[in-house]
Recover the amino acids of this structure.
């Protein structure tokens, strides 16, 4: 079985999408995932599954649809892929809590950053299936709009590092 990380969009952020992590753990177990662990209350879950990335995503989205009565976006990475996101951080010397990876389902278009608006000191770089952002004055004051990342979900580098470590501990089993 492979170790996976699922990142939910718009869960327990800014008063929207309330989902207790104990409920998320139960949803994952009902979807057939093993060794389920959540991390902080913003929709991060690590688990093992024999399914493919697409199967894992579909199973969790189906459980969330029933639970929430509406679609809930889910982005999935393997343990190795999450480790790559961390290693590929183009801003390794920046404060990890002011640097995020915005996770996407697909690779961003090469010109994805040309339509960015509201930039005020932020630096942006494209990743494999991520957009990296280093916030100059902090996220709370930023007016940054990234149209290519509209359906993504962001996690700061502290969270990425923790999730990568949790998934690596689960490892691969037969």
């Amino acid at each position: 079985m492979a170790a996976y990380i699922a990142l939910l969009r718009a869960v327990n952020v800014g008063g929207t999408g309330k989902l207790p992590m104990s409920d998320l753990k139960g949803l994952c177990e009902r979807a057939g995932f093993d060794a389920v662990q959540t991390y902080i209350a913003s929709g991060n879950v690590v688990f093992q599954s024999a399914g493919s990335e697409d199967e894992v995503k579909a199973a969790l989205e189906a459980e969330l649809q029933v639970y929430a009565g509406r679609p809930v976006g889910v982005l999935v990475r393997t343990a190795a892929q999450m480790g790559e996101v961390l290693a590929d951080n183009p801003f390794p010397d920046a404060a990890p809590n002011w640097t995020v990876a915005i996770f996407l389902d697909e690779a961003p278009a090469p010109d994805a950053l040309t339509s960015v608006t509201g930039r005020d000191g932020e630096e942006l770089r494209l990743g494999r299936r991520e957009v990296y952002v280093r916030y100059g004055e902090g996220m709370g004051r930023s007016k940054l709009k990234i149209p290519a990342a509209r359906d993504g979900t962001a996690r700061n580098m502290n969270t990425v590092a923790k999730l990568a470590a949790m998934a690596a501990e689960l490892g691969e089993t037969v």
Q: What stands out?
A: The beta strands are 2-8, 34-39, 44-49, 74-78, 99-103, 123-126, 130-134, 153-156. The domain at 2-79 is CATH 3.30.70.1280 (Alpha-Beta Plaits). The CA atoms of residues 47 and 157 lie 20 Å apart.
